[in-house]
């Protein structure tokens, strides 16, 4: 799957929440996410623009645990990437497998995410203690041919939300590493 995503720094979270609702965004849910990033033994993901992480999300049955690979960004505007995910049952065993294969835990990123649906897009408002608030708008597709049109549509949604600056292509991990 291809995740087409654009992110912007938000200075006023209450205003952002109001604008999401004003354009017809429908609140879905909130979740605390904790991401454990790994670096490969044979290449540096910071240099190849890839990511491998385990995400833990509280769930009614305990925790949902997802192993995700993100490929390099596919364009120069958005954070569009190939993304492959699989749910895992045992985080300790998965971590041990990765470590035994030579992977190293490189960082942890924690955030609180509010999730809204708007048409066929997902809008999230994220809070990271060290970085503040960000809004992400994303769309998932199987076709690389759609990326340019989807990116244009996402930018139109940002315009409806009156967000015209603060756009950020770096991941939260990259922003935290730079801080």
What does this structure look like?
This protein is 25% helix and 47% strand. It is an alpha+beta fold and 179 residues long.
Helix content: 25-40%
Helix and strand content put the structural class at alpha+beta
Q: C-alpha Rg, in Å? A: 16 Å
The total count of strands amounts to 9
Instruction: Tell me the number of helical segments per DSSP (H or I, 4 or more residues long).
Output: 5
- Which spans of ≥5 residues are poorly predicted at pLDDT below 50? none
Could you describe the largest sheet, including whether it forms a barrel?
8 strands, antiparallel, barrel
Mean pLDDT across residues? 93
**Approximately how much beta-strand content do the residues carry?**
over 45%
- What is the H/E string? EHEHEEEHEEEHEH
**Cα shape:** globular
Distance between the termini: 31 Å
Kindly report the spatial arrangement of strands forming the biggest sheet. 1-5-4-3-2-6-7-8
